[in-house]
Amino acid sequence: MMEFLRERAKGWFAWALLLFIGVPFAFWGVNSYFTPSTENAVAKVNDFSISSQQYQLAFQRARQRLQAQLGRNFDPSVLNEQFLKRRVIEQLINEQVLAETANEAGYSIGVQQLAAEIRKIPQFQSVNGFDPQLYARLLKSRGETAQKFENAVRRSLLIDQLRDTILSSAFVTPAELDKIKNLENQRRTIDYVIVSVDHTPANNKIADKQISTYYENNKDQFAVPERVKIDYLELKVDDLAKHIEIGEERLKTAYEERSQDFMTPEERRASHILISVDKSASPEEKQSARHKAQELLDRIHKGEDFSKLAKEYSDDTGSAADGGDLGFFERGIMDKAFEDVAFSLHKGEVSNVVETAFGFHIIKLTDIRPGHAKPFDEVRSTLERDLKREQAKEQFYDKVETMTNLAFENPDTLTPAAEEVGIPIQTSDWFDSDHGTGIASDARIRQTAFSDEVLVDRLNSEPIEMTDDHVVVLRVRDNQPATTKPLDEVRDSIVKQINIDHAREKAKELATKIKNQLATSPDDAAQLVAKYKLDWIPGKSLSRSNTDIDPAIVQTAFHMPHPGKAHPLETVQLASGSYAVIRLNDVKEASDAAQGDDGGNGKRGAQWRQTMGASELALFLNNLKAHSRIVRFEDKL
Question: Is 1.10.4030.10 the CATH classification of the domain at 24-171+622-636?
Fold first, then answer.
C-alpha cells in the first residue's frame, strides 16, 4: 500500500499522508510485526518493545474472540475493556518472556517441523491439501514475506515447546492422588436456616434527608460520562469490489497470464527412517550414526519390512508410529538434500543413506501424485474475486488520498470528501470514551473521537486505518458534557437501594443472633428458629458438587473445621443478599464413602496432573517475569 501511495503521491499533503497511514497486519497470532520502536511502545520486556500497533491488533482480536464465544449474548456496553486491555498486555508480555527463555535455553524448531505446521493451516489448504501458490498469494496480498511469516510461526512453536515441556513435567504421587480422592469424595452433613431479606419488612419511612445524604455520598453511581455522536466516512476494499464487473474475456486472459498459479505441482509421498545426530556431535558420533543407518539399510535390502524398522528405530517421533510415513509433499517443503533424493526415486524404491542437518535418513518413495493444471471453470470464481479486489484496491488507494486531502482542506465538514469519493456520510449512536456500539465499539474510533483535535477543536480526524483495506475519517456531530443525574430522577432507585441495604443489614443481624443462640442452646434449634417464623433444615448431606443448594452454603460447609465436642457454626451471605446459618454435624471421609469410577488414579489422575502442570507453568512464568525488566505504559492503552 505504501509503495502504491508513494507512486501516486502529489503535493506536500499527499506526502504527509504517508506519515500516518501504515499497514499494521499480523497473519499469525500477534507476533509477525515489523520491529517495534520504543516511542510508541505500550510495554517493554528487557530490550524488546511491544508496540502500540501490536497491542491494538491483539486487543481487537481478543475482543472479536470474546464476541464470537458469546454470540448473541455479547453486550459491548457491559464489557470491561480496561480489564481486557490489561489481560492482552500481560499475554503479550508473557509470550515475549517465554520466547526469550526458550531461545536462551537452546530450544529450536527444525525445518521439517516448521513446514509440517504451516501445511496444517486451513487458510493455505485447497481441495488437494496444502497449496503453495495460495500460500504465496495470501502472504503477498497481506504485504507479508515468507521469511517473516515463518519466523512468526517458529516463534509460536518455540513458545509452545517450552510451555509443553513444563506442562508435561508435572506429576502427582499416588499418596497425593489418594488425598485428592479423599477430599473430592468427602461428604458433609449440615443443618441450616436461611434468613431471607424478604423476611425483613421494608422501611417505608425513609426521610428526605437520608435520601439526599445517600445521593451526596454516592454521586459516582449516578454519573453520566461525556458522550459524543460522530459523522464518519468509511472506505472498504470489499465494499468497492461489490460494484466492479469483470468481463469474461478479461477472466480468460487472466487465466492464461496466471496459468502457473493454477498448476498443482507434482507431489511425492515418502517414508523415512531417521537416525538423528546432534549439531554438536563429534566425528566419531556422526560416524556411529551413519553406521547404524547403513546397517538398517542392509536389513531392508535383505527383505525386512521398512515400516517395522521405522517404528522400532526411527528417531523421528512424529512419523515413527506411522512406519515413517511423511505424507505427500511438493518441492520447497523438505530439507533440500532430502527433497532432491525423494524426487529422484522411482515409486517403491529405497534410497541410500542421506545426510541432512537432522542426521541420517533412509527414504522410501511410496507414491507419486503428478501435477496438473486446474481448468478455467474450477478457478473462475477465484479469478473474478481476485481481479475485483485488485481493481478495488487501486480505487481504494486513490479514494483514500482524495478523502484525506478533502477532509483536511475542509476541516469543518465531511460533505466535499463524501461527494467526491462517492460514499455516504454515516452517523453513529451516542457513545462515551469507554463504551460504544457499531463503529464505536472499536477503541481506536473512541480514542480519536475524544481527542482534543476532534472533540475540542471540532476538526475532521486524520484517517484511521482499521485494517490495511479499511479506513475511517470522522468528526464529532454532537456531544453531551459529563453530568450527574438529578436527585429527582434517581430518587426511586435510591429508596429501593436503601431498603435493600436495610433488609440485608437486618438479615445479617438476625442471622448473627440465631448463630449465637444456637451456640448456647444447640438442642433447641427447631424451636429457636420457629419463633422467628423460619424453617430449620436438618441433616442435609452434601458433596462438593451439590447443585440443589446455594453454592455459598456448600463452599462454607467444606471450609468449616471438623466437629469436635461442639458442632461448628457459621454464617454466610448468599448471592440474593440473604444470610444462612450453618451447623456442621458430620464429616464422612472417602474411605468410608462410595468411591468414584477410578478413585482418581485414571482419568482424574490425568486431570490433576494437568492442573498441577498449569500451576507450575504459572509459577515458572511469574518467576521469569520477576527476573525480567518489564515496564508497562498504561497511559498509552
Answer: yes
